[in-house]
Automatic annotation (TrEMBL):
Keywords: Glycosidase, Hydrolase. PROSITE patterns: GLYCOSYL_HYDROL_F1_1 (PS00572), GLYCOSYL_HYDROL_F1_2 (PS00653). SUPFAM superfamilies: (Trans)glycosidases. It comes from the Bacteria. The active site is at E385 (nucleophile). GO terms for cellular component: cytosol. InterPro entries: GH (IPR017853), GH_1_N_CS (IPR033132), Glyco_hydro_1 (IPR001360), Glyco_hydro_1_AS (IPR018120). One of its GO terms (biological process) is carbohydrate catabolic process. It comes from Salipaludibacillus neizhouensis. Belongs to the glycosyl hydrolase 1 family. PANTHER family: 6-PHOSPHO-BETA-GLUCOSIDASE ASCB-RELATED, GLYCOSYL HYDROLASE. One of its GO terms (molecular function) is beta-glucosidase activity. This is 6-phospho-beta-glucosidase.
Length: 487
């Protein structure tokens, strides 16, 4: 069988997030965001790690704690000062695009400010100018786990309807400022993460919601994000007529544990946990299957009269996703070994290998999921995160032989190529963490994703010097051949 290649205009590149690379968290007028108060998880605590869900008091204590070594996202990898050096390396690899995020707190330090911070706008002006100078197209995420912490403390985060207006003001401000520099946008990073991590995804605090009301609060916050996303879509299309804006989810494929009908039904329901979010933003309305779920769980979404119209009239132009692993669904009483991955856990799939952090590796699942999204929405798709977090060994001569990373990416790219042959309209691929960065889930540095090594350890020690791994040259060849040479 003949296999089609990637389209000639395929957007090869990498993806980073402001909170994981920029550093300078309190410089040039930037206000603290929710990631700036998340502590590092040391290796000895990894097995008992829980996703952050702090109280108001804990956040205030973290803000008062000036020991930045405990909060690695405060210093990142100093991209704020070294972006020209890093972009030059991305250019050397042949990047067509770089996905970045704008830190909301750099533009509006508290989130509810009436006027933007000019120093923050200028930083991104300079960043986008440098990308264009190097022939790299920016893809910009508006909200990547970077909600200003003031909005969590003062308003209860996204549970509060007022954040819709604050976000709309922020979105309109950056669309207007960067309309001639940024064509591709994403509203919320991994918007479905709110169901697993209400603090990171929804910016509300543990003491702001009663335990029995947390599920209600998650869906209410998600609704506010849906409306905010739709209003951003409207503003983008009015401000940048030739621009494109997408939604983005954690791409999760759910296998049934067995052929038992209840396992199959469980897999369907779990798959809908992903599709619910894209259904609303790509189809413009709440899917029928959520009616029973809301009834069974006593959930009532408070909506404005205009919400349904806003959602229906402002559909995203494309669907973006991260993909790291698949999952196994089973009846609640099913026992068996469990594995962790991204911000969720699952029954172990005996047919899959796993990364150093236990994330199960399933390239074929990416092809399957891309086909499912295509069948469902018939919209362009964009794989904006995919990569392998692993321990890297620096040899005496400074080289880093990361064959395991190349093997992981090779198989996922091969399956994307198959998906294109299947008929998937795939816009591009931005590998996660093209340069080593602070891990989202554990705030470690030793969990490395990059083609570029950064000399920094989990405690913030090191020279911050950048060096090329073996995978740097491999990915360079992949891009040069438009995905034809994967060896």
């Amino acid at each position: 069988m003949s296999i089609k290649g990637f389209p000639e205009n395929f957007m090869w590149g990498g993806a980073i997030a402001a909170n994981q690379v920029e550093g300078s968290y309190d410089k040039d007028g930037k206000g603290p965001n929710i990631s700036d108060v998340v502590k590092v998880v040391r290796p000895e605590d990894r097995k008992k790690m829980k996703l952050p869900f702090p109280t108001t008091e804990e956040v205030k204590e973290a803000l008062a704690n000036k020991n930045d070594k405990d909060y690695p996202k405060r210093y990142g990898i100093d991209f704020y000062n070294r972006y020209k050096e890093d972009i030059a390396l991305f250019k050397e690899m042949g990047f067509k695009t770089l996905r970045v995020s704008i830190s909301w707190g750099r533009i509006f330090p508290d989130g509810d400010d009436l006027e933007p911070n000019e120093a923050g706008l200028k930083f991104y002006d300079d960043l986008f100018d440098e990308l264009h100078k190097q022939g790299i197209e920016p893809v910009v995420t508006l909200s990547h786990y970077e909600t200003p912490v003031h909005l969590a403390l003062e308003y209860g985060g996204w549970t509060n309807r007022k954040l819709v207006d604050f976000f709309e003001r922020y979105a309109q401000t950056v669309f207007t400022r960067f309309k001639d520099k940024v064509k591709y946008w994403i509203t919320f990073n991994e918007i479905n993460a709110i169901m697993m991590s209400p603090y990171i995804g929804g910016a509300f605090l543990r003491d702001q919601v009663k335990d029995e009301d947390i599920l209600q609060a998650k869906f209410q916050a998600a609704h506010h994000q849906f409306v905010a996303s739709a209003k951003a879509v409207k503003a983008l299309h009015e401000t940048i007529p030739d621009g494109q804006i997408g939604c983005m989810v954690i791409g999760m494929l759910n296998y049934a544990n067995t052929t038992h009908p209840e396992d199959v039904l469980e897999a369907l329901n779990d798959q809908r946990n992903t599709f619910f979010f894209t259904d609303v933003m790509a189809r413009g309305h709440y899917p029928a299957y959520m009616t029973r779920f809301f009834d069974d769980n006593g959930i009532v979404i408070e909506k404005d009269e205009s919400d349904e119209k806003v959602l229906q009239e402002n559909l995203v132009d494309y669907v973006a996703l991260s993909y790291y692993m698949s999952s196994v669904s089973a009846r609640p009483e099913t026992e068996g070994e469990r594995v962790a991955g991204n911000i969720m856990s699952s029954l172990k799939n005996p047919y899959l290998e796993a990364s150093d952090w236990g994330w199960q590796i399933d390239p074929k699942g990416l092809r399957t999921l891309l086909n499912m999204f295509t069948d469902r929405y018939e919209k362009p798709l964009f794989v904006v995160e995919n990569g392998l977090g692993a321990f890297d060994k620096v040899e005496e001569d400074g080289s880093i032989h990361d064959e395991y990373r190349m093997a992981y990416l090779r198989e996922h790219i091969r399956e994307m190529r198959e998906a294109v042959a299947d008929g998937v309209d795939l816009m591009g691929y931005t590998a996660w963490g093209p340069i080593d960065l602070i891990s989202f889930s554990t705030s470690e540095m030793s969990k490395r994703y990059g083609f570029i090594y950064v000399d920094q350890d989990d405690y913030g020690n090191g020279t911050l010097d950048r060096s090329r791994k073996d995978s740097f040259y491999w990915y360079q060849k992949v891009i040069e051949t438009n995905g034809r040479d994967l060896d």
